[in-house]
Design goal:
Its cofactor is Mg(2+). The chain is an alpha/beta fold. The chain is built from 16 helices and twelve strands. The protein has two domains: 345 residues, TIM Barrel; 57 residues, no CATH class. Helix 11 links the parallel strand 11 and strand 12.
C-alpha cells in the first residue's frame, strides 16, 4: 500500500532541547507521572471531521486544503482511501484514539438504506485499520445538523419526519460504534435550539429532545452497548440559542428528563468561552456533579467571538484543565479529543502533524505542571484552610442538614457581627501557579 504521508516518519519523542518540528518535546507516552504513563493520563484522540474531511473553507471562500488522497467524490472508494490515510496519520502521530461522525467517514446515498450500506462498507475498512494499528474509537456520533432536512433541528424539529429520520440515523450509528468497540457515544445538538421564540414551542421541543434521548438509552440497553453516553454543551452557533448551552443547563435538562444516570458531559474549551465561562469552570462544575466524562481540546481567538476551533497552545489553559482532570481521578472511558482544525492558510498535509504535535506537547506540559502543583500541596492546603471555619461543630451540623435558623441565630447573637477570617489571596495563588509554569 502506498504511503499517504511519505515525507513524515513516525513522530519521535526527542525532549525539550530538540529543534525538530516533527518531534515531541514534552509528550513521552511512556513517561510516568504520579505512577501512571502519560498516555493513560491524556488518552489523546484525533477528530476525523477536522483532520481528514475539513476542506478549510470559510464563508468568504472555498477550501484551500491539499489532501492528495481525497479526490472529492462522494463515493465509498474515496471514503475508504481517506480512511487508510487517516490511520497512517494516527499511527505515525502515535495517537491511541480517534472520533468520528457517520457522515465524516462515508457519503450519504439517495435513500437511508443506501446510506447505511455505505457506512457499513467504510466501517469495515475502519475495523481493519483498527486491528492493524491498535488505534481505538474513543466515541462515535451522528451528524444531525448538516443535511437540509435538519434545518429546524433534528429531535427538536417541528417536522416529525426529521425526528424519525434522526432516530433511525442514531440507531445505525450506535450499532456501528458498538461494532467498532467505541468507548462511548456523543450527542451534540448542533441545531437543537431556536433562532426566534416567535415560531417556537420551546416546552414541546424540550420534551421531544428528552424523549429522543430516553429512546437512545432504551436502544443502548437493547443492543448491549456498554459505552458511555455523552452530551456536548454549546450555547449558540449555528442557532441563536441551543438547549445544551453549558454544563449547568445540561445538568438541569438531564435531571428534568430522568437521564442523569445515563449521561456524562464532553466539554469543549471554545464552547465554554462562547457560554461566558472559563474551561476550568465547566470542568469543575461537571466534576462536582459526577458527570465530567471527556474533553474536546481546542481554544478560541479572543479577538474573534465565534467557534474558531484552534489547537491549544496556552500552557496556563492546559495546566488548569489537567488540574481538574487529576482532581476527579482521571479519565475512564473518555479522553482528550482534538476537536481543532489547522488554519486556512496551513493547507499542506504536514501542517496536520505540526498542529497535533503542538497540542499534545501543550497538554503534556499541562499534565506535568498540574501534577507538581498537586504534589506541592500549597494550593489545596490554602483552599482547605480558607473553609476551616466550616469544620466547627455548628458548621458540620449545617453541612449534614441537622441545623436550623434558630441555631444560627443563637450562635451569631453573642458575636454581634462577622469578622473577616482570611484574605482570598488571588494574586498570591496566581503567582503560585506561575511558579510551576
Amino acid at each position: 500500500m502506498p504511503e499517504f504521508f511519505p515525507d513524515v516518519p513516525k513522530i519521535p519523542f526527542e525532549g525539550p532541547d530538540s529543534k525538530n518540528p516533527l518531534a515531541f518535546k514534552h509528550y513521552d507516552p511512556d513517561e510516568l507521572v504520579g505512577g501512571k504513563p502519560m498516555k493513560d493520563h491524556l488518552r489523546f484522540s484525533v477528530a476525523y471531521w477536522h483532520t481528514f474531511t475539513n476542506p478549510l473553507a470559510d464563508p468568504f471562500g472555498p477550501g484551500t486544503a491539499l489532501r492528495p488522497w481525497d479526490d472529492g467524490t462522494p463515493t465509498v472508494e474515496n471514503a475508504s482511501r481517506r480512511a487508510r490515510a487517516a490511520f497512517e496519520f494516527l499511527e505515525k502521530l502515535g495517537a491511541p484514539f480517534y472520533c468520528f461522525h457517520d457522515r465524516d467517514v462515508s457519503p450519504e446515498g439517495k435513500t437511508l438504506k443506501e446510506t447505511n450500506a455505505n457506512l457499513d462498507a467504510v466501517a469495515g475498512v475502519l475495523k481493519e485499520e483498527q486491528q492493524r494499528t491498535g488505534v481505538t474509537l474513543l466515541w462515535g456520533t451522528a451528524n444531525l445538523f448538516s443535511n437540509p432536512r435538519y434545518m429546524h433541528g433534528a429531535s427538536t424539529s417541528p417536522n416529525f419526519d426529521a425526528f424519525a429520520f434522526a432516530g433511525a440515523q442514531v440507531k445505525k450509528m450506535m450499532e456501528v460504534t458498538k461494532e467498532l468497540g467505541g468507548g462511548g457515544y456523543t450527542f451534540w445538538g448542533g441545531r437543537e435550539g431556536y433562532s426566534t421564540l416567535l415560531n417556537t414551542d420551546l416546552k414541546r421541543e424540550l420534551d421531544h429532545l428528552g424523549r429522543f434521548l430516553n429512546m437512545a438509552v432504551d436502544y443502548k440497553k437493547a443492543i448491549g452497548f456498554d459505552g458511555q453516553f455523552y452530551i456536548e454543551p454549546k450555547p449558540m452557533e449555528p442557532t441563536k440559542h441551543q438547549y445544551d448551552s453549558d454544563t449547568e443547563s445540561c445538568l438541569n435538562f438531564l435531571r428534568t428528563y430522568d437521564l442523569l444516570g445515563h449521561f456524562k458531559l464532553n466539554l469543549e474549551t471554545n464552547h465554554a468561552t462562547l457560554a461566558g465561562h472559563e474551561m476550568q469552570h465547566e470542568l469543575r462544575m461537571a466534576a462536582a456533579s459526577g458527570v465530567l466524562g471527556s474533553m474536546d481540546a481546542n481554544t478560541g481567538d479572543p479577538m474573534l467571538g465565534w467557534d474558531t476551533d484552534q489547537f491549544p497552545t496556552n500552557i496556563y489553559l492546559t495546566a488548569t484543565c489537567m488540574l481538574e482532570v487529576l482532581e476527579m481521578g482521571g479519565w475512564t472511558t473518555g479522553g482528550i479529543n482534538f476537536d481543532a482544525k489547522v488554519r486556512r492558510e496551513s493547507f499542506e498535509p504536514v501542517d496536520l502533524f505540526h498542529a497535533h504535535i503542538g497540542g499534545m506537547d501543550a497538554f503534556a506540559r499541562g499534565l506535568k505542571i498540574a501534577h507538581k502543583i498537586r504534589e506541592d500541596g500549597r494550593l489545596s492546603k490554602f483552599v482547605t484552610d480558607r473553609y476551616a471555619s466550616w469544620d466547627s461543630e455548628l458548621g458540620r451540623k449545617v453541612e449534614s442538614a441537622r441545623a436550623t435558623f434558630a441555631d444560627l441565630e443563637s450562635y451569631i447573637l453573642p458575636k454581634g457581627d462577622v469578622t473577616p477570617n482570611v484574605s482570598g489571596r488571588q494574586e498570591m495563588l496566581e503567582n503560585l501557579i506561575n511558579e510551576f509554569i
